[in-house]
Amino acid sequence: AGIGKRVALDLARRNARTILACRSRERGQAAVEEIRAATGNPAVLLRLLDTGSLASVRAFARAVLREEERLDVLVNNAGVTGLPFAVTPEGLERTFATNHLGPFLLTNLLLG
């Protein structure tokens, strides 16, 4: 939803292979189908990613590096706010992990 979906739509309109990295399979798949229908670009894909989980970030990065020839653009757009205090399975404060640590790790793992 929001900015990330708009960026993905614009990239798909430019005929780019576009990967939507989403926490929710259902919402992500709905966005993929909407973008494909709006652009006619079949190369819009869904991959699951929760930036609040470093294990999820590592698994996503491994899959991208294994499956994709190259990565030209990375848009780190995920974020949360106003959530009650919670700790991730890795022992990190959830908002900080989701908004900062996860995207930082993802970027570094994908640099090659």
Describe the protein in words.
With 112 residues, the protein is mainly α. It has 2 domains: 1-48, no CATH class; 52-111, no CATH class. It contains 4 helices and 2 strands, in the order H-E-H-E-H-H. It has a two-stranded parallel sheet. Helix 2 (25-39) links the parallel strand 1 (18-22) and strand 2 (44-48). Helix 1 (2-13) runs parallel beside helix 2 and helix 3 (54-67) runs parallel beside helix 4. The longest helix has 17 residues, at 94-110. It starts with a helix and ends with a helix. InterPro entries: NAD(P)-bd_dom_sf (IPR036291), SDR_fam (IPR002347). This is RDH11 dehydrogenase. Belongs to the short-chain dehydrogenases/reductases (SDR) family. One of its GO terms (molecular function) is oxidoreductase activity. Keywords: Oxidoreductase.
